[in-house]
Structures are given as structure tokens and as C-alpha cells.
Amino acid sequence: MYRDTQCTFLENYAYVWGMWERLCIWGQKVREQTLCRMRVGKLWVKALADLMLPRTCLVCGRKLGLQEEHLCLYCIAEMPRTCFWNRSHNPMADKINGLIQEGLETAVEDGKADHEDQQRERYAYACALFFFQDEGDYRNILYSLKYGGNTAAGEHFGKMLGRKMASAAHFADVDTVIPVPLHWTRRWKRGYNQAECIAAAVSRELSAELRKDILYRRRRTSTQTKVDVKQKQNNVLGAFEAVKKDHDPSHILLVDDLFTTGSTLYACYSAIREAYPSARISFATLGYVGRP
Predict the structure, then answer these.
(1) DSSP label at 53?
(2) For residue 114, pLDDT beyond 70
(3) pLDDT at residue 8, rounded to an integer
(4) Within this chain, do residues 11 and 100 fall inside the same structural domain, yes or no?
């Protein structure tokens, strides 16, 4: 009788387990079919929207296909990528580290720092997605984001940058992402901060925390587009302030839209370094002014 009871139990268990497996398989098929219908529905919506208001490539102006986002396939393939994320030492990183060392040397001369502080400062990593040239058509990516209200482009290319950085070992331990802030008057006029759009996407790809409550712009600065390097440095000198919060980041990533001379990012670095003296600080932008 015991054996009969045991056999009956095993048979019932096998039956229930088989039913559960069938239910799981059925659920997976339903999920796949639902996702497929959703994708098809989205494509139909996008196709209808493109018919009413065609989307065009930001670089060449060609009409975009259903699977294309912001750039056509040809311009994506031809994008002048920097590949700086593959190199811990690169021209962008060398420039910002040069500014950091100059600042430390000045601080040592003024008695505000010592040589130990200079030796303790770790090499700052930096990377950008593509080379930016005033005469190049890829500048339209940043122009559409900064002046055209195209925040979706900022998130799209920020995601692209973040994925590249996520594949690099020297960015693997980034735990805090901070966007370069706008003065409140400029943000109110524009309605958004383009650096925040990029930083939000980058932080998601790096699985890092986005913090917009640490770095502030204490005064409004004049435009940096038509001034020399020294004027840019003086323009942003003391323009930022960082507030130490209750968390203790080990690797901070500062994010902006464009790297020209590095003056703005260095001014942000100086403010954050005062609040977080032991954290590593790195830098990322969409564009880097230079040639491949």
C-alpha cells in the first residue's frame, strides 16, 4: 500500500510539473506575440507620423527610414568617432590633466596646496563620442540639442556614448554621474539642460547614480563661443560650487555636451574636488573639438 501511495504521489507530481512547464511555455509564447504586436504597432505609428511629418537625418538631411533614429545609416557609418573610450590616455584626457596639473602647481606656489597633493591626484580619464568641427555637418547633432530643443537626440547619443564607456575597464567603477549645470536663468529660458539629457542616458548605461544636486552654477557666465583660451578660463573661474552630500562616491563622471579647451570642465572639477577630495573624477562629452 505504501508503494501504491508513493507511486500515486510521483505520478501526480509529474503531472503537475508537466502542466506547469506547458503553462510557462504558453506564457512565453503569449509574451513574445504581445511584444511582436507592440513592435508592429509602434512601427505603424512611426510610419504614420513619418508620413505626416517626415523625420530627416541631422547630418545630411536625408529622409529617415522606420528603423533609423536621428541619423541615416550612411551618416552613422561615417560618424568621426574618437574611440577615446578604448584608451585611458588620449588627447582629451591629456588636455584636462594638463589643466589639473597647472592648477595644482599654481596652488602649490600660492601655498594653498603642497607637493603631496600634486602627487596624490590620480590621472583623470576622459572620452567623447565624436570629433566636432565648426565646418563639419556633424555639428548639427549638438546644435539641434542645444538650440533646437531636440532632447531626444541628446538621450539617443548619450546612450550610444554610455554603451561605449561601459565596455571600457577604466570606466567600470563609475558610481556617480554629474551633469555640468546651467545657470537658472539660462535653464529657465531654454527649458532644459542639454548636459542633463546626455548624463541621464550615460548613467543608465553605466548603472551609476545621476546626481543633479551636487554641482551648482553660482553665477551666470558670458558665452564661450568667440573668446580665446585665457578668456574662457577667466570667464568660468569660480563660477561653480559643489555641495557635499551624505554619500561618498569613489568615481565621479562629469558630463557636458562639448569639449573645446576644457575650461568649463576644469572649473567644475575644481569645485567638486573641494567637496570630494578623495574621489576620482573623470569626464565625458558628446563632441570633442579636433580632427580624426
Answers:
(1) S
(2) no
(3) 60
(4) no
Name the phi and psi angles at 177, rounded to 5.
Answer: -115, 130
3-state secondary structure of 199: helix
Into how many domains does the chain fold?
2
**Looking at the DSSP assignment, which residues form a beta bridge with residue 215?**
242
Do 270 and 132 belong to one domain? yes
| Confidence grade of residue 46 (pLDDT, cut at 50, 70, 90) | very low
Q: What is the DSSP string of 129-197?
A: EEEE-TTSTTHHHHHHHHTS--HHHHHHHHHHHHHHHHT-GGGTT--EEEEPPPPHHHHHHHSS-HHHH
d(CA 215, CA 237): 15
Q: Would you mind telling me the total number of residues written for the chain in this entry?
A: 292
Per-residue pLDDT of 72-85, as tens digits, reads 999 999 999 999 99
Q: 3-class DSSP state for residue 240?
A: strand
Kindly state whether residues 48 and 79 are assigned to the same domain. no
- Quick one: cell of 217? 552654477
The answer on 81 and 12 residing in a single domain is: no
Domain containing 38 equals 1-53
Residue 10 domain-assigned? Answer: yes
Report pLDDT for 192: 94
